[in-house]
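Standup notes
- DV: blocked on the single-chain target, sequence here:
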Amino acid sequence: MNSREFDYIVIGGGSGGYAAAQTARETWDRVAIVDDGEPLGGLCILRGCMPSKTLIYSAEVLHLAQKGGAFGLNIPEAAADMGKLHQRKLATIGEFAEYRQEQLQSDQFTLYRNRARFVDASTIELDDGTRLTAGHFMIATGSTVSVPPVPGLREVPFWTSDDILELDFLPEKIIVLGGGIVACELAQFLRRIGSEVIQIQRSPHILKETSSAAGSAVANAFRQEGIQLYTDTSLQNVAHDGKQFAVDFDHAGERITANAPHLLNALGRRPATEGLGLEAAGVETRANGQIICNPLQQTSNPRIYAAGDVTGPHEIVHIAIMQGELAARHASGRPAEPVNYDHLLGVVFTDPQIGSVGLSEAQLQERGIDYLSADYPFDDHGKSILMEAKHGYVKVFAERATGVVLGAECVGKDGGELIHAMAVAVTLGATVQDLLKVHWYHPTLSEIWSYPLEDIADAM
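- DV (later): unblocked, structure below
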């Protein structure tokens, strides 16, 4: 039996795994990466962030062109060319994927294009029978689409987000199951390129990861754009007769059946831990398969670490990278500080976008923190009005006694860009008084932050 020993082995070559391997390589020479993905690159580059945002931006350009009359423009016709849209996406992500593949295949690492499973606390076996041992391991296998126990769902040929990102034709009509980030981003994309969209969400409001106000602002925009959005539902059954899907659900006291030739299952993802042999390695998981880690990303086996979607608590690329780097530094005996989730930055790429940073209002209340808050709407702001970008608001939370900014929320045009001004403030511990010293240029979208900051400063 072939065997080989390494200082550090990473299982999974996505963003978190690559970050861990690169950081480990700063200390150790013998670093291996095991990844059977075809092609290499990980979820973000191949089937997540980059392809979805490429398509979403194209749909935004189309949406603005179709609204040309509101801007005093005569644009007789604007429509999606699905073949060209698909080719542009492939060309765009191809550059990122090629660069990542070159990194993974460089002579910095030993790359194994295999599946792996643990056979004991310090050994993995590849699917070709090769065994590898290491002083430390990183598990960064990501996540996979979840199929909740909805009657009939597992038996029908539904689409996943992967299928939507590979579309080279326009679906005439589609049912979207789910109201999370992926569901909402793709539902709006599909509507804007010309599909009839029925979206069914089980919770009372979409985007339950955000505040109810943020979710409501996006829901209002969705309905204005023609998405048939149902919230607070109970899914009863999913069926397929070879041509049409039928989704039965309860809503507002009545049974409703939605029919369409296509169905997107966007009801969430689950950690990709199946087949890893974690029990043999002494690695404990939660009931949903999520690997349990301490703040230094160590699992119940201190020689084995985990990062990214496979462990959480937030399925965000930059968090996976931070976790991977932290874990590799700790494993190699270098100073390592746990990720500070009180500074968490999140973005939802709907339109309006949602950007949030730091502690939410619910978290502030749960912790009993005495805080001040203030908000300001985009429909009363000069730059957003002239851009016809009137949905949403900005909101700032600051400690009452000191004025230190503890969190912020931006729901509006380019909210994912605007939130970074407050991200700097939260991470550096700036006060509202500090931020009011900043030159907020007029007219810009960014200057909208100055209004809630002034309100908080006046209330102190």
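- Follow-up: Residues 342-459 form a domain with the Enolase-like; domain 1 fold (CATH 3.30.390.30).
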